[in-house]
Amino acid sequence: MNSKILPKLPVLALAACISFEFWLPESVRAQNAREADPSSALSAALVAACRANETQFANYLTDENKTAFLGLPDEQRRSFLKRLSLTNDPGQPLISSDDHKRIVLHCQAAAQSAEFHLGDPRVHENLAFIPITAADGNSSEFGLVKEGGGWRLLSLGLVLIDIPQLSKEWAGQEVAAREEAAIETIRGLADAIQSYRRAFGKLPESLAQLGPAPKDEISPDQANLVNEHLARGGQGGYQFRYRIVPAADDANSGFELAATPDAYPKNGRRSFFLDTEGKLHGADKHGAVATTDDPLIPGEKAA
Fold this sequence. Notes:
Blueprint: H1 26-35, H2 38-51, H3 54-58, H4 63-70, H5 74-85, E1 92-97, E2 103-108, E3 113-118, E4 122-124, E5 127-134, E6 139-147, E7 150-156, E8 159-160, H6 163-200, H7 228-231, E9 234-235, E10 238-245, E11 254-261, E12 270-274, E13 280-284
Antiparallel strand pairs: 1-2, 2-3, 3-5, 4-5, 5-6, 6-7, 7-8, 9-10, 10-11, 11-12, 12-13
Helix pairs in contact: 1-2, 2-5
């Protein structure tokens, strides 16, 4: 298991054999597993991840990470557990043991399954390290720390499980992805406007004229070149503006496009501006509209 699996392994409760503990409420069984030994805690965390049980999984995090995990947006919590369980959907966990009586966890989800083999733990006072191997042969090691009487996830391989820091990194990645999507959208809009001009011999008066049309009813007012969201000027956390730049000869009129994040800085930091030459400018404008005075985006070549 390599760093790709990083946010992939929570701790879950052992519920595999018919014993007195099997009949205890699940919350009590989970607590007992967490308070027991590091292997039980790690397997319990993985069970919770397999089930996509966010509340149960949080019990196997350090206090700081638990607070941060429960404060993540829903999608980030789900994504964290997916990475940890190596499945894209909630699954059914099955715990067994190998010939050496070491824990084997199988997570069967709708589209795929994952299997984890836990090795012998190395315990040093309040720290424990457990090697783990996935069915695909990738292996790594989980670190756990004893905190509040129970074992909690601390690290995966050489990387600390630092959810507050991961949250910042994920937020930055999401912002970057939205900015890249805004760049693709503004270029797509420019192509749609040029297609409109070729089809109808003029520029559209507004983005609305590029929007969806009923079947076999394409017209200058409904050109069916963009989706309904873009026709209204918004998509992917960005707002798009369109302006015709008149020329003495209408055939030579140009246009400009601008894209600004609709919730700065959550949905994006950079604003973008496509000039009449088709060059794209971009800068952190704190939510304001970019202009031709702003630098060209990386990779954009000046004329």
